Amino acid sequence: MKAFYLAAPQVENARRSLNTTNGMRRTLKEGRYVSTAPYGFKNTRDEQNRPIITPSGMAQVVKKAFEEIASGNFQIEVLRKRLLKEGLKISRSNFYTLLRNPIYYGLITVKAYKDEPEEIVQGIHEPIISEALKNWCFLITLSKPCSRMRY
Q1: Domains of the chain
Q2: Do the Cβ atoms of 137 and 66 come closer than 8 Å?
Q3: Which residues contact 33 (CB under 8 A, 6 or more apart)?
Q4: Which residues contact 98 (CB under 8 A, 6 or more apart)?
Q5: pLDDT of residue 4
Q6: For residues 103 and 74, what is the distance between their CA atoms, to the nearest angstrom?
Q7: Beta-strand pair 41-45/119-122
Q8: Burial class (CB in 10 A: 0-12, 13-18, 19+), 65
């Protein structure tokens, strides 16, 4: 009898975990971002009181970062340091992640889970940059050789 009392809460926790994971995946597939908003966005609520991300005050700085990368006039690290002075407090690795994140042009990545493959869905949030600007930035970052720091 004691074993049942010890096992019941564990089963309940496993059930809650599955329900939470399934609910978050369903929300992502609807095009809603369910985590903390990335740089340039803020978490808000829509008319039905459902969570949604909207561009924040930093959205213009993030858009400027993509435009400057697309122009090809700046090295990525020089641009990051310049934008740091304008208020974009971001590390080097997070800046590279920002440049490759599809959320900035309106898409959301749903990670693979069990039998389901990874997929990219159209988000219901307002994108900060256009698809064309994203493609241009991606080509620029791929074409530039990687310069490694030597110690």
Answers
A1: 2-142 (3.90.1750.20)
A2: yes
A3: 41, 51, 52, 53, 103, 108, 123, 125
A4: 38, 39, 62, 65, 90, 104
A5: 61
A6: 23
A7: unpaired
A8: buried
pLDDT for res 53: 93
Two structure tokens written together for 143: 């074409």
- Residue 65's Cβ-side half-sphere holds a number of Cα atoms within 13 Å equal to 32
pTM: 0.78
Q: What is the DSSP string of 1-30?
A: -HHHHHHHHHHHHHHHHHHHHHHHHHHHHT
Predicted confidence at residue 149, as pLDDT, reads 43
Mean pLDDT by 10 residues, the chain (151 residues): 68 90 92 91 91 91 89 85 90 88 91 91 92 77 52 42
Length of the chain: 151
Evaluate whether 27 touches 19 at the Cβ level (below 8 Å).
no
Which token pair is 8?
Answer: 């019941």
Q: Is 45 in contact with 130 (CB distance < 8 Å)?
A: no
